[in-house]
Amino acid sequence: MPRLILLRHGQSQWNLENRFTGWVDVDLTAEGEAQARRGGELIAQSGFTPDVMFTSVLKRAKRTGALALDSAGLKGVPVVEDWRLNERHYGGLTGLDKAETAAKHGEDQVKIWRRSYDIPPPPLAPGGEYDFAGDPRYAGQTIPDTESLKTTLDRVLPYWNEAIAPRLQAGDDILIAAHGNSLRAIVKHLFAVPDDQIVGVEIPTGNPLEIDLDGTLTPVSARYLDEARATELPPLPKA
């Protein structure tokens, strides 16, 4: 029975500043580093030893994974990076203060942009400060100018199917250190969460979510390792 741990990155500088981050490569705060190390301690206590760690190309996820592995005393774990595990692209909201954006556009509109399943924010204008077209990490890729959770799932799921699922089906235990929305996309897929219910699923920063899977990669159990910081999980799929 393969085991999977999903680990959202620890608090980032822009989490602290309440800004829309998306693909901007901001680093962890001191609190975020502490959350990552605490996540590693919990992973060690659970007896989980990953055969591989998958992560995005963004430093807040990569550093969270590295700090967690170090804190868990796990050395030599192979690491695979891919941009398809990046956070959701927040389009024209990227870099904006969330409270100021709500004051300008209304809280209801911002809530739709942030939490709806298939309505993306306005697209990011080309040529600006946060235009990622020239970033060598995305060379040769068709990158989005905005994303909803649905279109985030549309890029995460093919990567899951081609790179992650085969390792799990081969019996490997896997750690994925990534982001709130790329991990919500995986949770939606694994737990078959309906479109209108995924908006209520929130993954805490730095709290490992351990999922036991059967041979068809259907969850048979799931728990947050830090119960004090746990959020409600979707129900397990019915057999």
Estimated helix fraction: 25-40%
The overall strand count is: 6
* Proper CATH architecture: 3-Layer(aba) Sandwich
Order of helices and strands: EHHEHEHHHEHEE
Tell me the domain tally. 1
Count of helical regions: 7
Catalytic activity: (2R)-2-phosphoglycerate = (2R)-3-phosphoglycerate
Pfam family, one: His_Phos_1
Active site: 9 (tele-phosphohistidine intermediate), 87 (proton donor/acceptor)
Site (Transition state stabilizer): 179
Tags for this model:
Rossmann fold; 7 helices; alpha/beta; six-stranded mixed beta sheet; globular; 239 residues
3D structure, described in words:
- By secondary structure, the protein is of the alpha/beta class.
- The protein has a single domain (3-229), classed as Rossmann fold, CATH 3.40.50.
- 35% of the residues lie in helices and 12% in strands.
- The chain has a 6-stranded mixed beta sheet with strand order 3-2-4-1-5-6.
- Strand 2, helix 3 and strand 3 form a beta-alpha-beta unit.
- Helix 2 packs across helix 3 (59-71).
- The longest helix is centred in the middle third of the chain and has 21 residues, at 149-169.
- It is globular and about 50 Å long.
- It catalyses: (2R)-2-phosphoglycerate = (2R)-3-phosphoglycerate.
Topology summary:
Elements (H helix, E strand, L loop, with lengths): L2 E6 L4 H4 L13 H17 L5 E4 L3 H13 L7 E3 L16 H8 L1 H9 L33 H21 L4 E5 L1 H12 L17 E5 L5 E6 L15
Parallel strand pairs: 1-4, 2-3, 2-4
Antiparallel strand pairs: 1-5, 5-6
Helix pairs in contact: 2-3, 4-5, 6-7
